[in-house]
Amino acid sequence: MIRRVGPWMIALALACLTPGTLAAQPAAPAASAVRACPAPDRYLTPKVPLRRAAEAVRKGKRLRVLVFAAVRMPAITETVEAKRYPASLAAALSQRLPGVDVTVTTRMEPRAGAGESLPLLNAALSAPVAPSGYDLVIWQLGSTDVLKGTDMSAFGTKLSSGVQAIHARQADAIVITMQYSPRTDFMFDAGPYLQALRWTVKSEGAALFNRYDIMRYWAEEGTFDLSDLQPGASMFEDVHRCVGDLLARFITNGMAAPETQ
């Protein structure tokens, strides 16, 4: 059952669920060591091989990635953009793939649910960073649909269409689940949307990077205090760095699957 909530609760959830809010907080003192990014192995290997990405690296020594995501704020400054997970992903992939020309293009759309995202995704796929197109497309969605209470049937249909559009461009597809926040988990039932993401992604032969469960694991293990009412910029950076690092592991594991060799 989808829980219906008032506008004030949606505003609160937007502040809690989206990392742009964290970036606006005063920076905490620098940590003496880089925080580790633990996650169970089950979250770090896709259930489908990333064949196109593996082929691009093997034959062309290059990897073209598009990260397509919804964000809370109408605009993202360059300073904030440099600290979000796509930047960490680019650095981590370059480190894991020495000698490979890695390009990560980011397209952020404000407050876009699955329905609003679909035509924008198609437009982004039609204007790739290189004539050869993208080898891998990462689609982040779910939070806006949870907050709006998007009809589940429409959500699944749009998700299927988006993954099919990615595959039609001869690119591998990774779908990223929404963020987890213990401060809003009691207000919004993400369960049906997570289930729809899992089922649809599996049906369409895409990979699912389960950011929601990874962040919940961090909260339960005390890796990050995601219940902090005034999280600082350092947490924003650490969380995004960890997401980028783990996503890079997820991608390279998918490229190394026996089916890609």
UniProtKB/TrEMBL annotation:
Keywords: Signal. GO terms for molecular function: hydrolase activity, acting on ester bonds. The keyword Coiled coil does not apply. The keyword Thylakoid does not apply. It comes from the Bacteria. Pfam families: NonGDSL (PF25182). Residues 1-23 form the signal peptide. SUPFAM superfamilies: SGNH hydrolase. This is SGNH hydrolase-type esterase domain-containing protein. It comes from Azorhizobium caulinodans (strain ATCC 43989 / DSM 5975 / JCM 20966 / LMG 6465 / NBRC 14845 / NCIMB 13405 / ORS 571).
